[in-house]
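Good morning,

Both structures are done.
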Amino acid sequence: MSQQPETKQAKHTNATTTDWQAEITRRRARTTAHLWGAMLVGGAVTILTAYFVATPRLEPREIVTQLAPLIAIWFFMLVWGIWPKMAEHHRATGVISLSYLVGVIILVQSPNSAGGQIWFLMLIPTVFVLSGKRGGIIASMASLLTYGAVTLAHRLGWIVPRPSLVATIVNTIYTNGLLFILALAILTPIFSSLTRSWVKTAQGAQTANRQLAAQLESQAQAYHQLQTQSTLLEATNQIIQAISGTLSFETLPAQVVRQVEQALDDWDIYHVGLFLLSTENADDGNDRAVLKAATSEAGRLAVETGYGMEVNTESPIGKAIIRRHASILSAEECQQTSQLGALALPHTRSEIVLPLQSGEEVIGVLDIHSSKENAFSTENLVLFQALAHQVATAIRNAQLFSRTNALLEEVQDIQRRYLGEAWRELLSRQPIQAISSSSLDDLHQDPSIQAMRRQALTKGETIVHSNDLGKASEPTKNTGLHKNGNGVASMIMPLKLRGQVIGTITVCDPRSRRRWTEAEINMAETIAEQTALTIENLRLLEETQRRAAQERLVSEIAGQVRASLNPDTVLKTTIRELGRALGAEVASIEIMPPPQERPNGSHSNGNGNTGMKSEQS
């Protein structure tokens, strides 16, 4: 991932370098063409001028002989310049070489004139332009060495100049005008190219500045957007952390709107409303969106009055529920819709309506109002919807928790009633009044202990009484403190089974200055719990055995009945065994024929005969 930006940067740099190299090549080609044209025109003018000026004084053959080197160079330059498919650097090399040769000829023929010196001086910048830095340095060294060598050769007499009329004319033309023209021909494209380069560079810099400004603005917007999204994510995290631990459906809506308003403080939030769907008090059975909690004053008043609205497309709330997607309202739209019944929300400048969707079900709407225009943008819509999804999940969990608790309480209530009935039935069969470990029956009849026992039965809590309340000792968790006439230290523990109290255990100590310790109370409560479980297990065992005996008895009676093929024997066996099993003294069976239907629709019992079998048990 980190190499991708570097690769793009390298490609951009290579492309920029290639563009500049192509531009330099094009400009060198134009400069070469200008210089080539100027030398051809200047050479032709020089040759023709020298010929016509020398004609009155010399023979044409002699003039041509003296002009032969220049004519040969001119034709060679012409052919070299128009030769097809020649590379530009080869063409430039030829122009430079021929220019160097012309300078040498001028310098050899007229070593003391300024023409050769000026020619070599003009050649050096030309080579710098056409061949670059390396070529310019080589040209500078070659010009310096050539000028020095020719000058030294003249001084030593190795080269003896032979002034001729044509050479004088050519030198005069070079000195008086042609070099100036050639200088213009060379420098004009150079300075023109530089000027165009400066202009293009300035335009490029201006374009680059505009692009840079646009990029900076785009980056600033992206940074602002990123910062906004980061703030929104942090706010969402704060909201979820605050409400995730709340499972009370009654308090959760108020906590949600309060946390949303606090966490989204950067958006200038001044009203947050939480609507939940309800089918109660709805016309024609349609759903209604009922406002459950709000943060503004108008919203709280609307909650107190039970404000709600029909779910339809006429309101933003209904649209969000039906279409299942969030919507952002502008300032103009808010002016038309920002009210809760008769209560207006005048400070709303922007609004976002978020459906609360849990799975495939929409359970409500989170309505957020801001006093700042354009506070909500479509770029952040996904994050706001994620916030709404988390809120919906928390609300759904609270609803499920509330329903589960209600069902659990219902099951526990049924279980308590069942246990109560079961123990009443058991006590009706096997009465158990009280079991005492000593002869302290009079204490059990004490009004104070009876009151403590009733309190333990009612509250389902341990009741402790100490007869040494003024002494500082280990603290105890006294649920109730009573003084009885005997001053007996008492402790009464309820026998509880799944929340149902089935009895009590009373412990008394008649000794004076007795105070129950925390360890003693805990031990007594543990014993009471284990005792209640043991008693319940014994009751269940007794009930199981009783039902097994009943099933066995039924099976035996049914076996005896099925063993006989005589109806009279079957009937006698049935009433005998049934009476014996139920402890009844008399049992009888009466068989009657089915009624007959008369023509008028009434029923008749036949002839009134009945069959009856009875037996004394």
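Second structure follows.
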Amino acid sequence: GPLQPLIIPLKAFPRSIPVQVLQIDTSAVVALPFEVTVESGRRIAAAVQRAAGGDSFERVVVSSVANEYCGYLTTAEEYSRQFYEGGHTLYGPNSLDFVAACAAELAAAVAAAPSEVPAVQRVPQQRSWDLRVHRYLVDSAEPLARPSVLRDPQFRDYTERVDGAWEFAWNDGAPGSLCWHQTLVRIEGSTDGGATWEPARHNGRWVDDQGTEMEVRHLGESAPGHGYVARWYNPAFGDDRLHRFVVLGADGAVRLASAPFS
């Protein structure tokens, strides 16, 4: 339509679309990269049956969203009425006729191929992609020699959008200096008033940022390094134990411990 150039330029439309026909005994699976409506699937199956010959395939199964994704595939009637969740059909109301013809041609070739031929392939000689690339990994950085406390542990009460949690904020090196794939922060508990500490467990699991009860967030630059906050969302209280947040190094050693809280 007239608004199409505002959505996506024509050169951005896929030019090569995978259509696959897999023969399993007397059945054929037609794999397409579209969300195929029920009636479209029926028409594709019928086209495949006609092209391959009545005795080639006893059953034709049309599989949607196979390997790639190219939007909806609808009949011209559905396209005109938009009776398919308001989705998009990239190539207009005649998309089904074209795809059905491609599937039928390939199915006929598969049905006619000798049994010793493992595959019938019709692929472009060359394919190219023009993709935007964004780097999400942080650059490596030197670790801060000694992290420091920004805010002692405090409980943030529940709101309509955020669960309640104990929070602890500290200053550390740039994100690239931390080992995010290892445990950064854990909770420790003490039953003797803080004389000794042990890693805390809840429901049989360690309480740290590798599980589902704690998160660690980067707050941005905060001299002399960067600020971070750890939130413990499911505090397991109910006795006289003390708890504390502990920041760990790459070797698992304690780099910083918060003030105790209960």
